[in-house]
Specification:
163 residues, mainly alpha, 2 domains, 9 helices
Length: 163
C-alpha cells in the first residue's frame, strides 16, 4: 500500500484557508507542528513559517480583518458581545481590531439578545426561579446584565400592553 506524500507547508495553509477564514495566529498554530515535523523527519532546511504567513497576507489570502468580520457575522445571531470578544481573543485577534468591531457589536446587542431570548423562551418567567434560569442562559451566551434586564423589562412592558 502506498503512502500519500506529505503536503508542503504552503499546501496545508491553502487547504486550511480554503475551508474557512483563519486569523494569522490560528493558522500559525495549526501549521507549527508540521514545521517541526519537517525538521525532524526530512532533515531539510527549516521552512520560514512567518515568511509564508507574510506572503499569504501580501497576496490577500490571509486577513485578520476578514476573519474577524466573518466570525462576528456567523456568531452575532446567537451570542453576545462578551462571548464574541472572548472567542476573538482566543483566535489571536488583536485588541485594536476587536475594539474597532466592538462599536457595531454593541449597536446590535439588544436586538440580538431579544432574538436569542425569543427563540429559547418566548414567554415571560412565571417566578423568580424561572427568571434566574433565563438570566443565566442569556449570561452564558455572552450578554451583559444591563442588556438582559432590558430584554426582560421590554418583554414585560410589551406583554402588559397587550392585555
Amino acid at each position: 500500500m502506498r503512502r500519500k506524500p506529505e503536503l508542503s507547508l504552503r499546501a496545508r495553509a491553502l487547504q486550511y484557508l480554503a475551508r474557512r477564514e483563519h486569523s494569522r495566529a490560528e493558522l500559525r498554530a495549526k501549521l507549527l507542528p508540521y514545521v517541526q515535523a519537517e525538521d525532524e523527519f526530512e532533515q531539510t532546511q527549516s521552512v520560514d513559517l512567518d515568511g509564508l504567513l507574510d506572503d499569504l497576507t501580501a497576496r490577500g489570502w490571509l486577513s485578520d480583518e476578514r476573519a474577524t468580520a466573518l466570525f462576528i457575522h456567523s456568531k452575532r445571531s446567537r451570542f453576545g458581545t462578551q462571548r464574541i470578544t472572548h472567542e476573538l481573543k482566543q483566535r489571536g485577534i488583536s485588541d485594536e481590531l476587536i475594539c474597532a468591531e466592538l462599536f457595531s457589536l454593541k449597536e446590535s446587542e439588544l436586538e440580538a439578545a431579544r432574538s436569542v431570548w425569543q427563540r429559547k423562551f418566548g414567554q415571560l418567567p412565571q417566578d423568580a426561579k424561572e427568571k434566574a434560569k433565563q438570566m443565566r442562559f442569556m449570561q452564558s451566551r455572552g450578554f451583559g446584565f444591563d442588556v438582559i434586564f432590558k430584554v426582560l423589562q421590554t418583554t414585560d412592558e410589551s406583554s402588559a400592553g397587550d392585555l
